[in-house]
Amino acid sequence: MASAGGNFVMVFNGEIYNFLELRRELDQLGHRFRGHSDTEIMLAAFEQWGLKRSVNRFNGMFSFAVWDRREQLLWLSRDRMGKKPLYYGWAGKTLLFASELKAFSAHPDFEGRIDRNVLALYLRLGYIPAPYAIYEGVRKLPAGGILAIRPSDTGSNANPETYWSALEAAQAAMAKPLEDEAEAMAELEALISDAVGIRMIADVPLGAFLSGGIDSSLVVGMMQRLSSTPVSTFSIGFHEKSHDEAAHARAVASWLGTKHTELYVKPEQAMGVIPRLPAMFDEPFADSSQIPTFLVAELARRSVTVALSGDGGDELFSGYSTYDHCSRYFERNRAWPSSLRQAVSGAVSSVPGSVIRALPSLGPRIQRSAAILGQEDIGSAYLAMVSRWDFPEDVVKRGIEPATPFSDGRYARVAGDEIQTMMLLDTAVYLPDDILVKVDRTSMAVSLEARCPLLDYRLFELAWRMPLSLKRREGTGKWILKQLAYKLVSRDLLERPKSGFSIPLRDWLRGPLREWSGDLLNQDALRREGWLHPEPIQSAWQAHQSGDADNNERLWTVLMFQGWLRGVSRPTPPV
User: Fold this and answer.
1) pLDDT tens for residues 243-301?
2) Quick check: 297 and 448 in contact, CB under 8 A?
């Protein structure tokens, strides 16, 4: 779409939730509109305020490219929390940019050479964080990023800026503390109500995902408060009781009076999704909750076009139990002299892989403990705690793992304590590059628009004004969020241990997925393909099959890479 004055031409993916507010302001400034879309409002904003000032005024999920005809300048930008994707890179002398990596393959000069270093980072995390991408020469624009490119620019002088970052926003928010409990609760309730309300504006059928946990129940409860008719809610269940949340969701739906739909998934249905994953994600991606997320999106799409989700509550309000585990572990480690910790960690790290593989039940745990023990800062310790493969450079041939925010000491300096450092790191890395990738790609695969009210940037800034004591009490997180949820849903229905949205992958790899997995992990194929060392992978596979170890997360990273490699990539042969 072109702006009314003709100077700006834009391609745009996403939604601007405050476009009506911006339209009223632009109306008063003399702008006239031909239609009712947020795209037209954005273009008028660019003409009125310029690119950088405008993007700071947008509240939404978006990625866009804007060509400024007068300045001969291309602008690329992405929303603050990283909900919508944007890739860019050069193929020969041609700049390519797109929401999906598969678009790059349409260009004849695009080589699609796998980046070994990024592959090592992927095996570490199970996802690929911005600015990295699986292909050499391709980058993801970071969340809250903006990039100006002139026709003469090349990859070496195209450097993104950030108009908003979690690090800087948290620092600014903490300078204006909000410690009064009643005042914090009142502001939180008003802001969540507004964040939900503006995301309910839609000219198509709208519903919500409901797991029965705190976050989704809070969002649905607020939706039902704002709605004059029953909200459509959707959940899936598994026959394996250890992974089934459908009964909890059903009870919350009944309490709130929603129009509820649930689907109990058989293993064959879930496993039927697996061949579709490589094309869906474009890059290797190994969060196995991608499967139930796709299934609930597919279920919702049968009835609605837009669905709200509860994503973001854990990162903003300290909901993960990992925070306590890692903090306690790190504090205990610090009681040891640094020289002793480094010596023990170095000694274990130098043990040959063949010895570790000979101890399938103990070896990996010893390695993990040693990896954490050797860390001098909480960011590095947290990275060691959440790693899939502790030493991915031993798995990827000639791969050297690149740096991430986990090694950036600014996060600890701004956050002030271990738990808040981990929360901030998750908001900067795990949230945009795992959680939101999972939600965006699975929902878009079925043409469903997923909206996340708890990720309204204003809510992030409010949460960081609150002291940790309002988020975490007596070893459990999301305290203030729970108090608000209890106003909407019976406390008895919500007071239960937190469970993840996952599949019984450990057992499936030993049962119905065993033949499929064994084929992808074939040693001869791994050697022939040339990207991964077969020995540590086979050791992990055999230990998992024998029951000596639970290696489902490690194995899933390799399986998703192998599935992607064979499914949608066109990589050049390894050098």
Assistant:
1) 677 889 999 999 999 999 999 988 888 889 998 998 899 999 999 999 999 999 999 99
2) yes
Higher pLDDT, 44 or 497: 44
Do 132 and 171 fall within a single domain? no
For 339, list phi and psi in degrees, rounded to 5.
-65, -35
CA distance 176 to 263: 46
Q: Which residue type is seen at 87?
A: Y
Q: Is residue 507 part of a domain?
A: no
Q: What's 230's DSSP letter?
A: P
pTM of the model as a whole: 0.93
C-alpha 438/C-alpha 425 separation (Å) is 18
The helix or strand, by DSSP H or E, that contains position 207, with its residue range, turns out to be strand 206-209
Please report the pLDDT score of residue 573 as a whole number: 46
The pLDDT of residue 358 is 61
C-alpha–C-alpha distance, residues 436 and 441, integer Å: 8
Predicted pLDDT at 375: 81
Same domain, 239 and 175: yes
CA separation, residue 15 to residues 3, 450, 497 (Å): 17, 10, 34
> Distance of CA 562 to CAs 110, 508, 540, 554, 555, Å?
21, 18, 16, 13, 10
Task: Return the number of other C-beta atoms located less than 10 Å from residue 445's C-beta.
Answer: 18
Show the tokens assigned to 50: 């310029």
Q: Are residues 226 and 308 in the same domain?
A: yes
405 vs 241 pLDDT, higher one? 405
CB-CB contact of 571 with 565 (8 Å): yes
Q: Is the peptide bond before 131 cis (omega within 30 degrees of 0)?
A: yes
281 lies in the same domain as 171: yes
**Which of residues 104, 139, 163 is at a domain's end?**
163
Name the residue range of residue 79's domain: 8-163
Tokens 């020289």 locate to 339
Q: CATH number, domain at 472?
A: 3.40.50.620
- CA 21 to chain CA centroid, Å, is 29
Distances from the Cα of 136 to the Cαs of 55, 89, 113, 529, in angstroms?
A: 29, 9, 6, 18
Beta strand 60-68 with 8-16 is antiparallel
Q: 318-356 pLDDT, tens per residue?
A: 999 999 989 888 887 777 777 776 776 667 666 666 666
